[in-house]
Amino acid sequence: MDALNNLMYGFGIALSPMNIVYVFCGVFAGTIIGMLPGLGPISAIALMIPITFSMDPSSGLILMAGVYYGAVFGGSTSSILLNAPGISGTVATSFDGYPMARKGLAGKALAIAAYSSFIGGTLSVIGLMLVAPLLSKVAISFGPAEYFALMVLGLTAVVSLSDKSLIKGLISGVVGIMVSLVGIDHQTSTERFTFGSAHLLDGIDFLVVALGIFALAEVFYMLLRGGGGKEQPRSAIGSLKLSRSETRQILPVAGRSSILGFFTGVLPGAGATIGSFLGYSMEKRLAKDGDTFGQGNIKGVAAPESANNAACTGSFVPLLTLGVPGSGTTAVLLGALLVMGITPGPAMLEDRPDVFWGVIASMYLGNIFLLVLNLPLIPLIAKILELPRALLLSLILIFCMIGVYGLAFSIYDLLLLLAFGLLGLGMRLFGFPAAPMILALILGGIMEQSMRRALQISGGDWMVFIEQPISLTLLIIAVLSVAGPLVRKAVKGAQARQAG
Amino acid sequence: MSRLNVNQILALILAVFSVIFLIGAYQIPAFALPRPVDSDMFPKVLGYSLLILSGMLFLEKPQERDIPDADAQAESARLPLLLRPWSRVIITAIAIAAYALLLEPLGFVLASTLLSVGLTIYYGYRRHAINLAVSLGVVLALYLTMTKFMNVHLPPGVLPI
């Protein structure tokens, strides 16, 4: 009953005329940005942050949550139409979505994607509404030692689940924490790594790094891969209507994948990408016509689409209740919230119920907008894909620059953006994942402060992290998440040598 | 002695970086009052961690995707120097640096339009009227939204806007 009352309170906030406009703008802008190959939700949210500077925090988060699931939906549009997923979370959608488009059923595939996203989004918001307050109650008893352990786990989970080299993921994370240390240490007011520069006293803003290593690096990467003028052939969209039997086929698929996706999203490190692949493979195994997956089976579009949207909502659980993001995207969201003066965590439910419940209610609205407004607009929005790539790249650069300059009106920040853009390009070329770096950058400062506070309380006794059962458990899982893949790799190597 | 692979070169660069970082960490002054953990402890742990990880990277075999594609390199070598992929990245980077320096004297609208139109032409788009109309339209819309509605005051520069 409490949850229902709180949800009504949330709707009171989300249904204010301005917030409805923000939800719509967020979903719409997210769809457009997510549709552009290469630019995913992280870039979309980072590009939108400057717009939220002057907003009320609940409106800002409502806008950005809309951008998030809009971007995921937009990613599926380019997966289906171009076989060029805008984000990794929609790669699985292209397995059956693109073959459908090749058969002239692009409209049907887009409609299935939209309905499945709606089901995934709506079911998972119910999950978020029920799980988040419970987790908050547990998390309220967390002390600095538990928080430190939780952040270590969040980081190692993201590193261990990235598809690239584990060592490179760890390096990326360590460098991210190093960047977070630049500036004045808030506990002792000591300057660290500022090299005497006044610009660095406040540290390096996460937005400069996020836009640099994601959006700007993506532009550089596209230039390097010859993404100048060549446009890809696009299929005709066709009818968006679904028959009754098709609707009956996708409903149970979307329901199952939504639940799976939600719980995958809640786990740190596992987000929309893993959720969508798990949903796809589960349905492929369950379906009687599983052998037609990959050739344009409608269930092969419904499963990953409902799972990835549900996972996005699921990833809000650790962010809102523990204040610890479980993915690169929610890390950028956390950074944006901190800029707005909101610290997510267990106390947020008590301190800022307007933000918490307003966002949950706005997610219901966002899902409806995604379905009712975005779906009919898709043929129109897809025209953006026809915009010359050369013009698009130049405009993305301007968006990056205005976002960074608007932070502190500093030319220095623009030059730092360029430096991080080149660093991001290097990371991309040499297989270093960028998500651990941004997560570490945002968590680094809080992580250090939690660790020092815990040691302050224990009088410098390091056993504090092991004596507390919760922090011990979290640290063991963190160690296993990193050691597991390393051991597996070593065993495989040994087996290969023996076989050789 | 055999040639170093990509991971080994990267590992050496990272090792040098971690040593420089550690030198910086050892120069962080101690706080006047004794504390269980001072400002220098975390940076030192990170510096040594990166050094160890560099060592592990040195021993890791590079994956296929870590090695640059030889065919693509040969193909790009046939293009004029200024249009080669790496030239595009370098010229874009120089353009961004120039934009940063000219933003305040020229103003947001003029500098951004010049950057967008110029780079679009450089990337190979030849419909100049559309280029100018879209670039100027987007830049003006951004400028007016930021300054008039969101109180983010971008530099007006030489234009009387």
TrEMBL record, chain A:
The chain crosses the membrane at residues 20-49, 61-82, 109-131, 138-159, 165-184, 204-224, 259-280, 319-343, 355-378, 390-412, 418-443, 464-483. Residues 20-439 form the DUF112 domain. Keywords: Membrane, Transmembrane, Transmembrane helix. Signal peptide: none annotated. Pfam families: TctA. The keyword Zinc does not apply. The keyword NAD does not apply. This is Putative tricarboxylic transport membrane protein. It comes from Aidingimonas halophila.
Automatic annotation (TrEMBL), chain B:
The keyword Isomerase does not apply. Residues 9-155 form the DUF1468 domain. InterPro entries: DUF1468. It comes from Aidingimonas halophila. Pfam families: TctB. Keywords: Membrane, Transmembrane, Transmembrane helix. The lineage of its organism: Bacteria, Pseudomonadati, Pseudomonadota, Gammaproteobacteria, Oceanospirillales. The chain crosses the membrane at residues 9-29, 41-60, 81-102, 108-125, 132-150. This is Putative tricarboxylic transport membrane protein. It comes from the Bacteria.
